[in-house]
Design a protein that fits this description.
alpha+beta; five-stranded parallel beta sheet; globular; 29% helix; single chain; binds adenosine monophosphate; 29% strand; binds glycine
Length: 407
């Protein structure tokens, strides 16, 4: 198969890394890709949100499957345009991607599908959570335990335009469950946990994600079939009945509360940096599963997680991230980190005059793999210590309390 991966982040590098191991792969391409992906395939300087240019590229390269990584092109309908040109796509239509693109729509689908979620509230009274409708790159959710928090958050959420969802503040532990979907059926990946806050101890501003690990005690693997049956499958049926079947990765952000599992949000794509901690654990061929979903039938596809492997990813971010990331800073030590046995996924990098430099907020994701999360953690942090660029920010406390027991 000739495969085109759309996007340029750490998630796309991790997908490319996994797909490049498939016996079914002939050629691997990315648009626009990044220097990490360039070591696995050919990168083409075409924007992820330019459907005409992507369609022309896919035709020129006789691409058999396009995998769309980020939410923006999915919500904008890039997948629909490629499909209309007869190209197989892993990634939902704009109509199905609305489950991430609109919080109001997601709530409506959950209610119709009978999926347990936070209760919607009529008025913004603490404790509550305020969510701006529409894509906000992780900046549209305000958790408000006190009246003062509500006072501060209301003008900010209103300033984002697009309408507001007010909901019950849920208390519990968070984890995510991803499933590869063919429109009707869901093939689960391993539960995974990510870290949204910039600094250790869950302090500082929200980010796109500062790290991840899998497996997680928050959602033991025994719980997965029940969550698929009560969350993913009802949503797939509901979206199909609305005429917009979901073909792609359905990401359920979950809160495990004292009274059970509730859905916080859906995303319409692989998580970043969760994917970087999931792909090294895969026991099976990711490309075959993505292609089967894109062609509408994942029946019989097996893609488990290797129970002997755990993985942990540390994100290295630029000085000033998330608000004003510094770029063009030289990066050293990536080869040494790789020589130590870590996987280094490029997220925001570029090569200028032969030198690897930073080119975004999240710069690299360093993944360690081991027989337990604690061991994966040791591998990841030893490699992180090999990498250096001025102003680098990363969290030191990921899975700090993970037990040294087998995955
Ligand atoms: P979302 O983009 O909807 O996942 O929200 C981002 C983050 O806000 C989540 O990962 C949670 O940490 C938090 N959050 C969202 N909704 C709620 C809720 N109803 N109760 C408590 N925390 C929430
Ligand atoms: N790491 C969170 C996300 O991908 O949405």
């Amino acid at each position: 198969m000739n495969v085109l991966i759309v996007g340029s982040g750490g998630r796309e590098h991790a997908l490319a890394w996994s797909v490049s191991q498939s016996p079914s792969l002939a050629t691997l391409h990315a648009a626009p890709g990044n220097p990490g992906i360039a070591s696995l395939g050919t990168c083409h300087p075409i924007s992820a949100t330019d459907p005409e240019a992507l369609t022309a590229l896919a035709r020129d390269l006789s691409v058999d499957l396009v995998v769309i990584g980020p939410e923006a092109p999915l919500v904008a309908g890039v997948g629909d345009q490629l499909r209309a040109a007869g190209i197989a796509v892993f990634g939902p239509s704009a109509a199905a991607a609305k489950i991430e693109g609109s919080k109001v729509y997601a709530k409506d689908v959950m209610e119709a599908a009978g999926v347990a979620t936070a209760e919607a509230l009529e008025t913004a009274e603490a404790p509550c959570v305020l969510k701006a409708d529409g894509l906000a790159a992780g900046k549209g959710v305000f958790v408000c335990p006190t009246p003062r928090d509500v006072e501060e958050a209301l003008p900010r959420v209103e300033a984002l335009g697009n309408g507001i969802v007010i909901e019950e503040l849920l208390v519990g532990q968070e984890a995510s469950l991803f499933a590869i979907c063919d429109g009707m059926q869901a093939l689960p990946l391993a539960p995974v946990q990510d870290y949204k806050r910039l600094r250790g101890g869950d302090e500082g501003p929200n980010t796109g994600g500062m790290g991840s690990f899998s497996p997680t005690p928050v959602v033991p693997s025994e719980l997965v079939p029940e969550i698929i049956a009560t969350v993913h499958e009802p949503v797939l049926r509901e979206l199909a009945s609305r005429g917009s079947p979901f073909v792609g990765l359905l990401y359920a952000g979950l809160m495990v509360t004292e009274t059970g599992v509730r859905v916080l949000e859906f995303n319409c794509r692989f998580g970043d940096p969760e994917t970087q901690a999931l792909v090294p654990r895969l026991d099976g061929d990711l490309l075959t599963a993505l292609a089967a979903a894109a062609s509408g039938d994942i029946q019989g596809i097996e893609l488990g997680a290797d129970p002997r492997k755990a993985a942990l990813t540390v994100v290295l971010a630029s000085r000033g991230y998330p608000d004003t990331p510094e770029t063009s800073v030289p990066i050293g030590g990536v080869e040494q980190a790789e020589a130590d046995g870590a996987l280094v996924f490029h997220a925001g990098t570029a090569v200028r005059e032969g030198q690897l430099v930073s080119a975004g907020g999240r710069v690299l994701g360093v993944t360690g793999v081991g027989t337990s999360v604690a061991r994966a953690r040791q591998v990841a942090y030893a490699a992180v210590n090999r990498i250096d660029f001025p102003g680098v920010q990363f969290r030191c406390d990921l899975a700090l309390t993970a037990p040294d027991t087998a995955a």
